[in-house]
Amino acid sequence: MSGTTPTVIETRGLNLAIAGRQILRDVTFSVREGEYLSIIGPNGAGKTTLLKCLNRVLKPASGTVLVDGTAIETIPHRQLARRMSYVPQLRTAQFPFTVREFVAMGRYPHLSPFSSLVAEDHAAIDRALDMTATADIAERSVTTLSGGEFQKVSIAAALAQEGEILLLDEPVTFLDPKYQNEINRLLKGLNVECGVTILSVSHDINSAVLHSDRILALRDGAVAFCGSVDDMAAEGVLEEIFDTAFLRVDHPKAGIPLIVPEEFFARS
Fold it and tell me: What is the pLDDT of residues 105-132, one digit of tens each?
């Protein structure tokens, strides 16, 4: 990625404690426009907490989050929502909205209080449904959807916001291989074909390797690694982050290493 590509997100020295426990420790990194950054790390490393700080769901005790060079706390909520969308961890639909009604909620930053949807809003909703291949289920209740279907609809709602930065928290966790593949392909297409900047928390190291431009790894709330896929795949890097041994096997088609915990091959 060119050095002239603008930085869209930057953190400087983020620290956050919850109930007396330090969750983030001096987290500093940046993301350029159009980049695909995966955030990995052990359970409890602070990945979800970091994502919530980037979306202003949580406020760090100290440090700064900059969006397009502006301190995030100074950006009006609706303006930030027009720039950045957030897809939380997979959840269960609680209310019987139709898919189209659910996706339409993503238009909130573009609407005035008590205003109705106009042609521009309907067009954005239709685009989001088409991009996520969910137009054919637009009239179904979200309570009838499978986990994979609902995750695609959640991404559609985020796309209806028309932000150019997409934050996702474990978007394929708990999904079967079919939907994992569909959503990974969808996100990569949004990144490559539409220029959407993606920051995605992932527990799947190989998915991060296959889809990312760069990888940020947290350990105990601190940045343990931030760099290219090739550098992360080097001997010793993952071992230090996860405190376990890994084997590396070349992918037969992509020409990049697949990474598997060494114990996976251990014989009893």
Answer: 999 999 988 788 999 999 999 999 999 9
Answer for the pair 110, 121: CB distance below 8 angstroms, yes or no. Answer: yes
CB-CB neighbours of 70 under 10 Å: 13
pLDDT tens-digit readout, 194-218: 999 999 999 999 999 889 999 999 9
Start-to-end CA distance of the chain, whole Å, equals 46
Q: Checking phi first, is residue 267 left (phi over 0); if not, alpha (psi -120 to 50) or beta?
A: beta
Note whether 151 and 90 are within 8 A (CB). Answer: yes
DSSP 196: -
3-state secondary structure of 56: coil
pTM of this structure:
0.92
| Letter string b/e over residues 131-167, b meaning 16 or more CB atoms within 10 A of that residue's CB | bbebbebbeeebeebeebbbbbbbbbbbbbbbbbbbb
The class (CATH top level) of 7-94+164-265 is: alpha beta
* pLDDT for the residue numbered 233: 81
Tokens of 261: 């915990």
Instruction: Cite the DSSP H helix spans in 59-217.
Output: 77-83, 99-104, 119-131, 147-160, 177-194, 205-211
Q: b or e along 90-116 (b: 16 or more beta carbons within 10 Å of the residue's beta carbon)?
A: beebeeebebbebbbebbebbeeeeee
Contacts of residue 255, Cβ cutoff 8 Å, sequence gap at least 6: none
Say if residues 267 and 249 touch (Cβ distance below 8 Å): no
